[in-house]
Design goal:
alpha+beta, 2 domains, 9-stranded mixed β-sheet, 6-stranded antiparallel β-sheet, 15 helices, 21 strands, 32% helix
């Protein structure tokens, strides 16, 4: 059973922070060094100073990025930079955005922010769809232990073909927004608050029968689980640690957009284009591509080529310096059941799974442990950015993917089948800092 509840969100005090855009951020794992620098300069109260702190030369166990984050969080509360909502509420959250790669196309994604009781995956209530990486979970756990707060929401999907839950909250859109901000990508984020007990109870009741899929935030969800287990082991009665802050979006929404995440490969002892092509051909039909023009123009050509071929069978692209590129489509005669007997059939049809299991593992020798530890891979959203990594000499090659369909995410997650890390990129991201969930009751920290 899915248990959600309203809460008194912490939020930026508009009297102290009149420009919300100066303090909210993209999720921590999307903050590049350049973005971090810009966030730091935008305001002394930008949330990046807590969720993406800088290490200093004098850091010790007693004075590090995590303890400084906790000190800042406490200070901002005491000085009423952050304040608690006056009463528990649910927070409808709409995002209006331009779809990358589709000029002139704008969508609206609707969801709502609430607390959700943490459930182990084995309970069959919350389902993951991707594997996780070791490093980010340890980092997020240390931040959670130090601050005892969740600064961003886990992005959760639920099925509701008729939009019943959405309709219960839709009336709020006629009222004045509680928060509104446009992010650096031009996406408009609008938040309302609903504190009507009857509406909140109706939404809570309607959600009880739902199963949830984590769209974004696997690392933070598993971090919250680890912290809950820690509190239980310590014998602490900490009901607030049994919940995590989430944004819930129905998966049938026309406003849902999934982008691919491309793989950039680096630090291989050796890489030879011709040898790689020979080893890949038993699995894929290999078609050399002739790209022309600027990097941006080449990106468009590659994207169009992958989209067209991907309608018929699993397809991916490869690009290596100097300017070598090819399109790889799964051979129609390949015996995937024999090659990958441990991989469920529904996963064997996904580009990203075939990339990891056939090309990364079998051809390049990058095993799953190396992937988990990010030894040879970086993940890049923009296709042009992946090409630039190679052209600039920061990588040896990159693999380019089509988006994973939402139906594949849903069916595999509910079946308990997990895709490789970064198999999806739900766009746009949920901003961090719109609402904050403190594990200490408002006023105590």
């Amino acid at each position: 059973m899915t248990e959600i509840r309203s809460f008194r969100a912490l939020y930026y005090n508009p009297e102290r922070i009149p420009e919300l855009g100066e303090v909210v951020t993209q999720p921590y794992d999307k903050i590049s060094p350049a973005m971090q620098e810009r966030y730091y300069w935008s305001s002394p109260y930008n949330l990046a100073r807590i969720i993406k702190g800088r290490e200093g030369p004098g850091d010790t166990l007693q004075n590090n990025v995590y303890t400084r984050a906790a000190q800042r969080f406490q200070d901002w509360n005491q000085r009423r930079i952050l304040m608690a909502d006056s009463e528990p509420a649910l927070y409808p959250y709409y995002q209006e955005y331009a779809v990358p790669g589709q000029p002139g196309v704008r969508k609206e994604r609707r969801g709502f922010i609430a607390l959700c009781r943490l459930e182990d995956y084995a309970a069959g209530v919350v389902h993951r769809h991707e594997e996780t990486l070791a490093g980010p979970k340890q980092d997020r756990l240390q931040l959670l232990q130090a601050t005892r707060a969740h600064f961003g929401q886990i992005f959760m999907l639920y099925s509701d073909p008729d939009g019943t839950v959405e309709a219960m909250l839709q009336g709020c859109a006629a009222s004045r927004p509680w928060e509104q901000v446009t992010d650096e990508y031009g996406s408009l984020h609008i938040v309302w608050r609903v504190s009507d007990p009857a509406v909140m109870e109706a939404v809570t009741a309607a959600m009880r029968a739902k199963k949830l899929i984590i769209a974004d935030g696997h690392h933070r969800y598993e971090t919250a689980l680890a912290y809950r287990h820690y509190c239980r082991e310590q014998g602490r009665t900490d009901d607030r640690a049994e919940y995590v802050m989430v944004t819930l979006v129905r998966m049938e929404s026309a406003g849902l957009t999934i982008l691919p995440t491309h793989r950039v490969v680096h630090s291989l002892p050796r890489f030879d284009w011709s040898r790689f092509a020979d080893q890949a051909r038993p699995f894929f039909d290999w078609e050399t591509l002739k790209l022309t023009g600027s990097g941006a123009e080449q990106s468009v050509q590659l994207a169009e080529s992958l989209t067209q071929a991907g309608r018929e069978r699993p397809t991916l692209g490869i690009y290596a310096d100097p300017g070598k590129s090819a399109r790889l489509s799964l051979r129609r005669d390949v015996d995937l059941a024999g090659l990958l007997p441990d991989v469920p059939e529904t996963l064997r049809q996904l580009d990203v799974v075939l990339l990891h299991r056939l090309l990364l593992e079998k051809v390049l020798g990058i095993d799953r442990q190396a992937v988990r530890e990010e030894k040879n891979l970086r993940y890049v959203r923009e296709l042009a950015g992946a090409l630039d990594e190679v052209a600039g000499g920061r990588a040896q090659l990159c693999f380019l993917l089509n988006p994973t369909p939402i139906e594949a995410v849903r069916d595999n997650a509910f079946a308990g089948h997990v895709m490789p890390q970064k198999s999806t990129d739900f766009y746009p991201k949920l901003l961090s800092g719109l609402t904050i969930y403190g594990l200490d009751p408002p006023g105590e920290k």
